[in-house]
Amino acid sequence: MTIKDFKACNWDILGKVLRFSEIDDETGIKLPEEKIMSKIETGCYKVRVMSAGSKVSGVNAAPGLKVGDITMVSQITGSEVNVEGEDDYRSFHSAYCVAILKKRYPNTADITPLRDRVLLEPILKEAITEDGIKLPEDMYFGDSRLMEVGYGRILALGSEVDKEEFKLGDIVYYERDAFCEIETLDKGTLKLVFNDRIHYKRV
User: Fold this and answer.
1) Given a cut of 70, is residue 178 above it in pLDDT?
2) Residue 177 — very low, low, confident or very high, per pLDDT cuts 50/70/90?
3) 37 pLDDT tier (thresholds 50, 70, 90)
4) Distances (CA, A) of 177 to 68, 146, 193, 194
5) Torsion angle in degrees (nearest 10) through CA of 72, 185, 176, 158
6) Which residue, 16, 51, 77, 127, could crosslink 8 as a Cys pair with Cβ 3.0–4.6 Å?
7) Where are the beta strands (DSSP E) in the chain?
8) In terms of C-beta density within 10 A (0-12 exposed, 13-18 middle, 19 or more buried), how is residue 148 classed?
9) Residues 82 and 147 occupy one common structural domain
10) What is the pLDDT of residue 105?
11) Residue 59 exposed, middle or buried by CB count within 10 Å (0-12, 13-18, 19+)
């Protein structure tokens, strides 16, 4: 049986997990070493949508997601789809889709956050205190795993994010570990964060 012998139902999606590759899908050219993406971005998987259920574009699902798109999935759910001679076909609930990508190895502009997700660029906290004292690196690096919050600049907003409360360029503080990471060619590692995990912002 092939993947064409299966169809997703309701809120689910059938997709192929895109594993690490040194070859750019669009150009067929081997990526330079400094541009190769991590094998699996922290907390997320890239998946190419092969079939989408009838309710995928509805509330609490993935509006705008369609067959052929590449999506970031926060976790792989459901079960493996038994396709002869092929691995990595899986079913998962579309609520776990956090972004749509225009291409497998994206630039920032190729990423569209879904629903209530926000795309953030981690930034460094001030390395020097008001008294002129230089802080050790582990005290000021913005996404330190030892701190209660991360620190980042908003690059893109999902369709359900309150545009009166947040806007592009805002510097916000978000809950530690409440994100997926995504590698980009132009800005390195970015983070996809739930809107309600952003606790305060700089004004």
Assistant:
1) no
2) low
3) very low
4) 30, 10, 9, 11
5) -50
6) 51
7) 12-17, 45-52, 70-73, 89-93, 97-101, 111-113, 117-122, 149-157, 171-175, 179-184, 188-194, 198-201
8) exposed
9) no
10) 82
11) exposed
State whether 96 and 126 are in the same domain. no
Whose tokens are 């030892």? That residue is: 146
Same domain, yes or no, for 65 and 125? Answer: no
Token couple for 154: 């908003």
Q: Please, are residues 77 and 8 in contact by the beta-carbon 8 Å criterion?
A: no
The phi and psi torsions of 105 (rounded to 5 degrees) equal -110, 90
**Structural domain count of the chain:** 2
Kindly state whether residue 87 falls inside one of the protein's structural domains.
Answer: yes
Give me the domain span that covers residue 48.
3-105
The pTM for the full model equals 0.77
Q: Which residues contact 11 (CB under 8 A, 6 or more apart)?
A: 53, 55, 56, 58, 60, 61, 93, 94, 95
